[in-house]
Amino acid sequence: MKTFDAIINRKSVRTYTGEPLSENELTQLLKTAYASPVSMGNYDDLTITVVTNSKWLKRLESNAQQTFHTDRAMLYGAPMLIIISTKLQGSSADNAAYSNAATIIENMNIEAVELGLGACHIWGVINALAQNQALMQEMKLPEGQTPVAGLVLGKSNEQYEARDIPMDRIATQRLD
Ligand SMILES: Cc1cc2nc3c(=O)[nH]c(=O)nc-3n(C[C@H](O)[C@H](O)[C@H](O)COP(=O)(O)O)c2cc1C
């Protein structure tokens, strides 16, 4: 698949069969994560956590449901959640840290399309996790880093098809 088609056809997938990903698929996804551009090449400021244990997936979802006072599904029954944690400084420099995480997630999301896997960026569950120190410690997330971005992945019966992307979707300025 052409990169352009993978980007255009990508969509947030929120229905999963529950089947696990293969080790080869995970390796391929992680390779695209490791290939991501990272500000100043500070790879050591980042940690990738791959969650496939169904007990952890349920804990993370119910933690978010409690935080946001909802009973709606937030991980959609996906068999894998990938979490990106990074060092934050509480200053405008954090923009780069968030951008690093988003870039890594998007690389994996596009690769998921190429592999025919469903995927969806996840913020709610990650935000709720970042507010729960005890849960972060129990998960052994790296000290001094904060979970800031996530991606659920899995096999889905949904198909990727050519999408019609409106050319006025995002305000665009030109200084010719
Ligand atoms: C930073 C970020 C966080 C997101 N968080 C969630 C989320 O927590 N749950 C969810 O279902 N979708 C989440 N999404 C998916 C967006 O809702 C989705 O990308 C948007 O509605 C456009 O739809 P599309 O991805 O199908 O093109 C997130 C997307 C981004 C980029």
TrEMBL record:
InterPro entries: Nitroreductase, Nitroreductase-like. Residues 8-155 form the Nitroreductase domain. Gene3D superfamilies: NADH Oxidase (3.40.109.10). Pfam families: Nitroreductase. Keywords: Flavoprotein, FMN, Oxidoreductase. Its cofactor is FMN. The keyword Transcription does not apply. SUPFAM superfamilies: FMN-dependent nitroreductase-like (SSF55469). Belongs to the nitroreductase family. PANTHER family: NAD(P)H NITROREDUCTASE YDGI-RELATED, NITROREDUCTASE. This is Nitroreductase family protein. It comes from Lentilactobacillus raoultii.
